[in-house]
Amino acid sequence: MTEGNFVDYVKMYVSSGNGGKGSAHLHREKYIAKGGPDGGDGGRGGHVIIRGNANLWTLFHLKFKKHVRAGHGGHGGSSRSTGADGEDAYIDVPLGTVVRDSETNAVIFEITEHGDEKIIATGGKGGLGNWHFKSATNQTPRYAQPGLPLEEKYITLELKVLADVGLVGFPNAGKSTLLSVLTSAKPKIADYEFTTLKPNLGIVAYRDFQSFVMADIPGIIEGAAEGKGLGYYFLRHIERNSVLLFLIPADASDIKNQYDILLDELRRYNPELLDKERIIAISKSDMLDDELKAELKAELDHELPIPYLFISSVAQQGLQELKDMLWKILNS
User: Fold this and answer.
1) Is the pLDDT of residue 166 over 70?
2) pTM, two decimal places
């Protein structure tokens, strides 16, 4: 999927249907004088329903669909005939989609399972026909209820990528290269910062035909939680990852300091992210000889509080060990 086709944020207007009005019909038939009220009820207005679809990975199909309207309920008829219900309108979304009220920004609900259906705009109830109002003292009611009005609102659909492992790191740390080597994904790779402008997903093949999903999150810089660089726009995707894999290049001036900066940006965005399992991968380690690697390892053993390992995507070094470590954590 190209970057232009990855859409994770959509605003739209939704409107349910009006309820049909009840009928105030009076029965008329040959040889039956004063047949009495027999007006039927109005039909229910159509709902606008948001439905989870596991076959979707993005909100691209909704990018140009800004208005969704359900059908109106039919009016009641004679002989107690109930009006037809309005046609429901369905909005299919990928799993992990959060639905918000655009005016208040409050979360209404979240779709996490395939086939999960939730009503975002309820159709108006149909009005009662006049036969409901007949009584011993009111034998010929000539009135019926109108249907209840529709419900309308502006909503925001916000996709948070569902992945087992999320790659976290500064721009040009080698995240896209690692994803391209471990999976069949084809992310954009170049020798400049912010090559990745949209999250990329890939399926990592493991032993015995097993697999897990890895997501390449666009690079974070210091101050991202305040909107610097690409800002916090993509930090929400990290919220859905089970394991956070921090990628720090071996030529970094201070590996521990870079890890602390990344961790602080996540904490400032959402402190709950610190509860996730974390691993550090020292990328581009093919640039280090055995002596330098030994010195760096002795230093990191005292500084880093979480597991780490040396890898090289280009030289294919340490990748199987990395997959073994991730799989063990995911299934612990």
Assistant:
1) yes
2) 0.71
